[in-house]
Amino acid sequence: MESKGNVLAALCEMRKSVEGVNKEKKAGMQFETVSYDGLLDVIRDKAIEHGLFLVPHKCTQTNCTPYEAQRGQRMARMNCDSYIFDFRLYHVSGEWLDISTPSVGIDTDDKGPGKATTYASKNAWMQALMLKRGKGFEADEPNESDRNASREDAYNQNRQAASAPKIPQYTADPKTW
Q: Distance (Å, rounded) from C-alpha 7 to C-alpha 128?
């Protein structure tokens, strides 16, 4: 059996430094989710620091089902592509862990496979690190002193604006000159 000590130790150290990822609501969506970019913002530097990187290793398409769906006033042809993605979580020592995750990509054009790949990559990191999803993780949420400082800044800006001399507004009407 090959050794996995370095990659497992690095993964454990990374787990200690990352508790979870904030959910966010994207325009047009009815629910909050962890975005791929949001996840990368939280883990990228820590993964590099611990010598870990995730590489797609193998992809198996398990289904491709075209269907039609209402999009506004018209019917759109959609594709529902499902896959099993196999990733390798490599450590700089050369050791790796295999991670498999299913994924589905739904799109009207050819973006379904890319969407499925992005979702699977995000899911592989989330699984390997056992990350929580929610609110209040990392520095994304301001702490109480940050909120108080921003309130004080807003108060000072309002005071300055209120005490500033009023500059008359010039118009095209000669009566106001």
A: 11
Its pTM surpasses 0.70: no
Radius of gyration, CA atoms only, the chain: 25
Strand pairing report for 132-134 and 20-22: parallel
pLDDT digit string (tens) for the chain, length 177 residues: 578 889 999 999 999 988 889 888 888 778 888 989 999 999 999 999 999 999 998 988 888 887 888 878 888 878 788 899 999 999 999 999 999 999 988 877 778 888 889 999 999 999 999 988 888 775 434 444 444 455 566 666 666 666 655 555 556 666 655
φ and ψ at 36, to 5 degrees?
-60, -45
**Separation in Å, CA 126 to CA 14, 54, 115, 117, 141:** 12, 12, 17, 14, 20
DSSP string, 48-99: HHTTEEEEEEEEEEEEEEEEEEEETTEEEEEEEEEEEEEEEEEETTS-EEEE
d(CA 32, CA 140): 15
DSSP for residue 169: P
In angstroms, the CA 110 to CA 117 distance is 13
